[in-house]
Amino acid sequence: MTSSPDRASSPRKSVLVVGAGISGLACARALLATGVSVRVVDRGRRPGGRMSGRTLHGRIVDLGASYFTVPEGSGFAAVVTGWEKKGLARPWTESFAVLGRDPIEDPEARRADRTAGTLRYAAPHGLRSLVIDLAEGVEVETGRTVEHVDDDGSVDGEFYDAVVLAMPEPQAARLLGASSPSRAQLRPDAWDPVVAVALGYPRVLWPADLHGAFVHGSSVLTFLADDGDRRGDGAAVIVAHTSAGFARDHLERPESAVDPVTAEVGAVLGLDPGIRPDWTHAHRWTSARTSAPHPQPFALSGTVGVCGDAWGGRSSVATAWQSGDALGQALALRR
């Protein structure tokens, strides 16, 4: 039988952040800026979280977040300005296409059937490069799996002044005890999966002004991104994001999603049925996005805080940064 750790004799750290995505690193940087000692751990091999991508056929492909926006007057704006100066981020597009199951043949109708909105930004070196930049000067341990977090600040038997769970709520809920007050604030069942499928074609076969497209009336797809246009290198690569229902049917074998997604992409883009991509890659996101974001910017109960893109009213990259930054500042004020 394993005895419980003696809190009085255990060495105390300051703050442990579990999750090296954008919210976790924003939290860590906010703490470091006020002189608080902080350490970040992540089970992955590199920082990134859902802003991660893969190197496929010689180039990085964004498979998680598709883009990001900058809320006016937000602290995130200064961060993005810094990324632009370093060549890590660039304005991408203010408009996306809206495609249906049947392709739009008339050019005038295609132009009219577009959605304009806030300026979207992309990353020439992949969105993960932005998270890597945030990790600069932060103590980050990758390949570290956390098993359990107690409300008294104990993480796998080691005590901290505060613990931050910067991750999707289903993952955070698994780390907390069933009766934990921190867990009671979470909505782990309000999260949807996505399968992202990258398709590399022999050449660009879609309109140059496609940029990205919201897909309506499809049981398979919700969004397409022209990854070459997004990255700025002109590569003939489409990244397709599936619907939650379709993803649930393919989570066990994400590669089984490739053929139906390829067919659906061809249909909505109006490609010749005989044209096939030269290569494909499927990646599953078991907890991709929440369907019920919290209005408050973070949760903080006792020594345990939770942050991420589910906190702040609207799920987005900017929300994730703002959530982590706000939680870091709140924890710093406690000292």
Structure description:
It is a single chain. The chain has 335 residues and is α/β, with parallel strands linked by helices. The chain has two domains: 1-52 and 127-190 and 296-335, 3-Layer(bba) Sandwich (FAD/NAD(P)-binding domain); 91-124 and 191-291, Polyamine Oxidase, Chain A, domain 2. The protein has ten helices and 16 strands. The protein has helices spanning 22-32, 76-85, 107-112, 128-134, 169-175, 181-184, 227-231, 244-250, 258-269, 317-333; strands at residues 13-18, 38-42, 53-56, 59-62, 90-99, 114-122, 140-142, 154-155, 158-166, 191-200, 212-215, 221-226, 237-242, 279-290, 299-301, 304-307. The strands form three sheets. Strands 1, 2, 7, 8, 9, 15 and 16 form a seven-stranded mixed β-sheet that branches. The protein has a seven-stranded mixed β-sheet with strand order 6-5-11-12-13-10-14. β15 and β16 (304-307) form a beta hairpin. The longest helix is centred in the C-terminal third of the chain and has 17 residues, at 317-333. Mean pLDDT is 92; it is low at 1-12 and 106-113.
Please specify the SSE layout and strand pairing.
Layout: E1 13-18, H1 22-32, E2 38-42, E3 53-56, E4 59-62, H2 76-85, E5 90-99, H3 107-112, E6 114-122, H4 128-134, E7 140-142, E8 154-155, E9 158-166, H5 169-175, H6 181-184, E10 191-200, E11 212-215, E12 221-226, H7 227-231, E13 237-242, H8 244-250, H9 258-269, E14 279-290, E15 299-301, E16 304-307, H10 317-333
Parallel strand pairs: 1-2, 1-9, 2-7, 5-11, 9-16
Antiparallel strand pairs: 3-4, 5-6, 8-9, 10-13, 10-14, 11-12, 12-13, 15-16
Helix pairs in contact: 1-10
